[in-house]
Design goal:
The complex is a heterodimer of chains A (268) and B (267). By secondary structure, chain A is mainly alpha-helical. Chain A is built from 13 helices and no strands. Chain B has 267 residues and is an all-alpha fold. Chain B has one domain. Classes of the chains: A mainly alpha (268), B mainly alpha (267).
């Protein structure tokens, strides 16, 4: 992206943010929603941790690292790349047809459609949980571990973005495919927050190789806490989770480009 | 004739669903995968634990799977059909609700009834598969089954009114997107969709007792799995019925006030 393009992105984002501020009550409510969604994940994880201690052979402070990593990744996804989620409505309203006429890449226009106010709430709660998880952790947080954790969070963000971009690509052909996006969000929230080795092997395999949810937070947390060899997947694959996120996102962007080339608006 | 009109209004959203094959396929796959995942999760969690929160393994699995099936009763998308109150307020078409021979409150109730019956067909189909497969346990007795059915009906009635209140909010705020998301969260959390309420701290259970959400799902499912004994069922059903009456009166008042805010063609 050139400097000029970056300047345009920054200016539009500032305008979008000011537009959100126009309706103060809605602005505050949207922040609350981001926070509330994340709190629901914490509540679920806390209830499980309290009632079922030693989940999957993991110490509860180690388990906490999974929702913390996932929620940070999710918050960054919502902030930076989240507008692909719910694209079906843009398509139904014919916005994509207008985007195609403007001299700015369609994907960038989709991302610049509005400012994701809820990301503020998402990231605030996620940062709080991450600080809590790191504070309770008994691990020695060396520079290497911290670097890997940052890479894992960014990889998780890209992997989540890849999944939603794939759904958005499908929406270009079937706007109703948006429904899959809602389910995906629910699945990531519910099953992405604890050790997947509590599930039967087949189900765990499905959430690793079918829907690559395990790479978002479970594998990185397992590698960091020394459970990397007990995940059921090869260690090198679990350790390479951040890279899986990058590759998946690149693949999803190629799929998006291909789908956009084959997009047909309602007017043919 | 009235029945025919009612049928036509009630089938709008289900017809929209049936004419969109990706949505039906997605719903089927989602329900199947969600049931498998939820059942696996609770079985896995109970592998190293005995009874907790007053729920044994089979009770917890049954509760969780029934909660997934019951979620089908709520998940129809009116937005795609552009027939939500929020969209009508946005486009100004809400006025047509008041120009038809069918009162808006009756139209809304019929739409809601149709959606819930369609969702019930999904839930029953899922139950018919899960019961012989041993994923869910049968009810303890015929009396438990009867009380559960009555409680589920009252619970859905409460949920209908709660959703209506959120929709009626649009007459004053124009948009209810944020409120709707908060409601879905509150309903999931306080009705036991995320995890049975029995696993939460005592203060949390007490607090949720003052809100209508517990009456929507937690009560009928707890009756089904036997966590609430039949001897306490009458009290619980009375609380549910009280919520139905209170919310019916409140929404009736809101409909009346909302009608005063709708202006047709300049007043």
């Amino acid at each position: 992206m050139s400097m000029n393009a970056l300047r345009i992105v920054w200016r539009i984002t500032r305008l979008n943010f000011r537009a959100q501020l126009e309706y103060r009550a809605e602005f505050l409510m949207m922040i609350a929603i981001g926070a509330v969604w994340q709190v629901s994940v914490i509540v679920f994880a806390t209830v499980l941790l309290t009632r079922f201690s030693g989940m999957g052979g993991w110490d509860s402070s180690d388990v906490l690292l999974i929702p913390a990593t996932r929620m940070m990744a999710h918050g960054l996804f919502v902030l930076l790349l989240g507008r692909v989620h719910g694209l079906g409505r843009h398509i139904q309203e014919g916005k994509i047809d207008a985007y195609l006429l403007r001299p700015l890449p369609v994907h960038r226009q989709v991302q610049l459609d509005s400012f994701p106010t809820n990301a503020i709430g998402d990231l605030t709660v996620a940062a709080g949980l991450l600080a809590g998880a790191l504070g309770r952790s008994h691990l020695d947080w060396t520079a290497g571990r911290i670097t890997y954790l940052i890479a894992a969070i960014l990889g998780g963000m890209l992997l989540e973005a890849a999944l939603f971009t794939a759904v958005a690509s499908a929406s270009l052909r079937f706007p109703a495919a948006d429904y899959w996006g809602n389910w995906l969000e629910e699945l990531l929230g519910t099953f992405g927050s604890y050790p997947l080795n509590v599930l039967p092997k087949a189900v765990g395999g499905l959430l690793t190789y079918g829907l690559p949810l395990a790479f978002v937070a479970y594998f990185p947390a397992a590698v960091l806490t020394g459970h990397g060899h007990g995940t059921g997947a090869p260690y090198w694959l679990a350790a390479g989770s951040p890279l899986v996120g990058v590759l998946a996102y690149l693949g999803a962007r190629l799929l998006w480009r291909w789908s956009l080339r084959h997009y047909t608006g309602v007017n043919g | 004739m009235a029945v025919l009109h009612a049928w036509r209004a009630a089938r709008v959203t289900p017809l929209g669903e049936l004419h969109s094959p990706p949505r039906v396929t997605a719903a089927l796959l989602r329900l199947t995968v969600q049931v498998v995942l939820v059942a696996s999760l609770w079985r896995g969690l109970y592998a190293a634990t005995g009874t907790t929160g007053g729920l044994g393994r089979d009770q917890a699995v049954t509760y969780a799977v029934l909660a997934v099936l019951a979620s089908r009763l709520r998940e129809l998308d009116q937005y795609t059909g552009r027939d939500t109150v929020m969209q009508h307020m946005h486009y100004g078409t809400i006025v047509y609700w008041y120009l038809r021979p069918l009162p808006p409150q009756r139209y809304y109730a019929l739409r809601s009834l149709g959606e819930r019956l369609y969702g019930l067909a999904w839930a029953l189909a899922g139950y018919a598969v899960c019961l012989p497969a041993g994923v869910v346990e049968p009810p303890g007795s015929a009396a438990v089954a009867g009380v559960f059915a009555l409680s589920l009906l009252l619970g859905q009635w409460v949920l209908h009114y709660v959703m209506l209140v959120i929709d009626q909010l649009c007459f004053w705020t124009l948009r209810n997107g944020a409120a709707l998301l908060i409601l879905v969260f509150a309903q999931n959390l306080l009705s036991g969709v995320y995890a049975p309420l029995w696993f939460f701290p005592h203060w949390f259970v007490t607090m949720s007792g003052f809100l209508p959400f517990q009456a929507t799902l937690s009560v009928p499912l707890s009756l089904y799995v036997g966590r609430i004994p039949l001897s306490e069922a009458a009290v619980q059903l009375a609380v549910q019925a009280a919520w139905v009456v209170a919310l019916a009166l409140f929404t009736r008042l809101l409909w009346r006030r909302a009608a005063r805010r709708v202006i047709s063609q300049g007043g």
